[in-house]
Specification:
The chain has 259 residues and is α+β, with helices and mostly antiparallel strands. It contains nine helices and four strands.
């Protein structure tokens, strides 16, 4: 398992040495750092960014939350900033698997600095200097496949992660504990999509609409159920509402594969 070997006082001192304008206060979960993040250039500071960082004592198992307190940059998802100012600084498990300095100062000097430097660059040039991952699950699969050295598909990524977790043995830079974190995030995305599809299926009123939605699910790699089985399950009940047998076909198979 990942372990944070620093106590809270050490973390606060670590952050102070790196970013002295971020003032700490102890919270129930760990610490909050509020103030100005000084973005350093090669020879001098570039700018100061007002923000808040929430640190959890379970770090690095829990990612710190970085939130802007002013619209220094647009609060837009295409800028990787949510409407409440929370920043999507990095894909956490990718950083855990590639960084040699998994500390708060390493996080501030690495992902956080790169994120704001990228925002400034985007203001001027309209592109990201270090590239970017897609939003949502697609971005997760891109990042995970890059460090696992597999194709960026859900099935390939999950197969590789399951192998690491079952064998309890690292693959390259990916520790079993990090692989389990990655696996849980992909599965959470799958479960969310399943619930959305389940709700849509139960709201449909005819067989053709159900089969259309199922075909869409198949194309998005949610399952590998043949359309004949879907049609047979619907006709066997003579009902418009999605039967339990159909739900078993749609959702049971993928859950079995994700174990």
């Amino acid at each position: 398992m990942l372990r944070n070997k620093s106590n809270l006082e050490d973390v606060i001192f670590d952050v102070f040495c790196c970013q002295p304008k971020l003032l700490p206060s102890v919270t129930a979960e760990g610490a909050q750092f509020r103030g100005h993040f000084v973005l350093q250039g090669p020879s001098a500071p570039i700018c100061e960014i007002p923000l808040v960082i929430e640190y959890d004592v379970r770090f690095p198992e829990i990612e710190p939350v970085v939130q802007l307190v002013e619209p220094t940059f647009p609060f837009k998802i295409d800028r990787h900033i949510y409407t409440n100012g929370t920043c999507c600084v990095c894909i956490w498990e990718h950083w855990l698997s590639t960084s040699k300095d998994i500390t708060m100062s390493g996080f501030l000097k690495g992902p956080v600095s790169d994120f704001f430097l990228s925002q400034l660059y985007f203001n001027e040039h309209g592109s990201w200097p270090f590239g970017e991952w897609e939003h949502g699950e697609e971005g997760l699969l891109q990042a995970y496949s890059a460090i696992l050295n597999v194709e960026p598909s859900r099935s390939a990524v999950l197969e590789s992660l399951n192998r690491i977790v079952r064998r309890d043995r690292s693959r390259g830079r990916v520790l079993p504990s990090v692989a389990e974190m990655m696996r849980q995030r992909v599965q959470a995305s799958v479960n969310s999509q399943f619930e959305s599809i389940r709700n849509q299926l139960n709201a449909l009123e005819n067989e053709e609409a159900v089969k259309y939605l199922v075909r869409d699910a198949l194309e998005n790699d949610l399952t590998m159920v043949p359309s004949l089985a879907i049609s047979t399950a619907i006709k066997a009940t003579g009902k418009m509402k999605v039967p339990d047998t159909l739900e078993d076909v749609l959702f049971g198979e993928l859950r079995r594969r994700l174990r």
